Amino acid sequence: MNIALRLNLFFFYKFKGQDEFGNRYYEQKKAQINRKNKRLVDYKGISEASKVPAKYHGWLHHYSDDFPKDNKKNFSWQKKHLPNLSGTQYAYEPKNIISKTNYANQNEEYQSWTPGK
Question: Which secondary-structure segment (H or E) carries 60?
């Protein structure tokens, strides 16, 4: 992160907390008249909005005034938050899809369907 942004965070924002992924959350010290305090996140690593867990997303968008606590127990049916994995090696791929490697290994040429045969 550049020095100008660090100075801006130091002088105009107060640190609110950190999530389990290392993202740090800040809230503006003084709001403008008749406006809510701005809230922002300092991402650990690549800046990707899907890296923010749901409870912190709600706080960032002023759905709640209380900053989320990590000590809240999750329900047994809740899964751990994952960022968007599209475009990575961990992206979901259905089982019955013909990938480029499977198609290349088939050694069969495509035969178009002809009516009446």
Answer: helix 54-60
